[in-house]
Amino acid sequence: MPNRIPRFAGLTYCIALLAWCAPAFAESDESRTFEVGGLLFGDLYTIPGHHTAAGDGASGFVLRRGYLTANFTLGAAWYGRARIEVNQDGEFESYGFEADFKDLYLARKFGDHEFVAGLSPTLTFDLIESVWGARYLMRTPMDLQGVASRDIGVSFKGPISTGSRWNYRAMFSTGIELGAESGDGRKVMGAVTWKPSDSLYVDFYLDGERLAGPTDRTTLQLFAGSRTDTRRWGVQYSYQDREEDPRLELASAFFVQSLRDSLNVIGRIDRILEPSPKGDNISYIPFDPTAPATMLLAGLEYRFTPVFRITPNVIWTTYDRDDNGVRPDDDLHLRLTFFLDLE
User: Fold this and answer.
1) C-beta separation of 324 from 32 below 8 A
2) List of residues 6+ apart from 4 with CB closer than 8 A
3) Region for 178 from its dihedrals, namely left if φ exceeds 0, alpha if ψ lies in -120 to 50, beta otherwise
4) Which end of the chain is more exposed for a tag (fewer CB within 10 A), N or C?
């Protein structure tokens, strides 16, 4: 059963954790750093066609996300992050704002290994997101379909043995609700990554989440990808059993190719093999919840400066027929997306 507590209690937990660890920081002041930065991105958009009446013909400007981030180090081994997220509510032509915690964690390095405690990114798509590298444009597939991107708990990662090309990641989350994207229940996550070369990744991920009633979730995910200075690509398959709730199953592939130093071409295809469980409740890019879908994204990313980029892009979603033999209308999003990175 999920462990639900008020947000202020979750914040108290994190602050208490920092206070408990404080005596371990015996380094000199010169070894401590504190940096503040931020991210900001949004879209100028129009939607010529959509499966919902609210989306069909909608247009406007949306500031999807804003982040204020404080990163700090405490000696050679300790570091942490506090990040606040501001976003609009995700409805078409609606511009209400919400603010919440995104990250609030403390971490320590033990040689090549790492320990993290607090509100931090989950393991479900942390590697995938680092290879994709364009979250400002589109969240990774499981993130988009509503799988939690943050949880309060502890995580561990590092090489399986010294000099090994095999690495492990493990996370134990409490199900405490803090922040807009934290998980629903207690969850155990584990992953093993094989790196046959410095730029190539093959990842196997598994998790289990306890929820109220016959709705526990088990996720299996396979991912292969590559990241170099001029090209990134990845393919994944994800399957999540939800007992009596509708299951989530998808496959995805993407590439990002540099045409020159300031210009990238971006492409991605997501195949939702079962009707989207979150469906019309997905912010900004809802899916019809009655039929499997194929989503295509294409964009041309232009970097004006090292911190600012503009990306004209198209998102086109087509649907199979539903159980009644009816095919929902296609979704077509035309966007001019900006990204300001001051971190």
Assistant:
1) no
2) 175, 176, 177
3) beta
4) N
Give the pLDDT score at 182.
Answer: 66
Nearest in space to 218 (alpha carbons), one of 192, 173, 182, 187: 187
Q: What's the burial of 19, exposed, middle or buried (CB within 10 Å: 0-12/13-18/19+)?
A: exposed
pTM value is 0.88
Residues forming a β-bridge with 122: none
Q: Are strands 308-319 and 293-305 parallel, antiparallel or unpaired?
A: antiparallel
Structure tokens at 91: 């409805």
Spans of the chain, pLDDT less than 70: 1-30, 179-183
Instruction: Give the CB-side neighbour count of residue 106, counting CA atoms within 13 A.
Output: 15
CB 148 within 8 A of CB 211: no
How far is 162 from 1, CA to CA, in rounded Å? 39
- At 71-98, the pLDDT tens digits run 999 888 999 999 999 888 778 877 778 8
DSSP assignment of 280-329 equals GGSSSS---TTS-EEEEEEEEEEEEETTEEEEEEEEEEEE---TTSPPPP
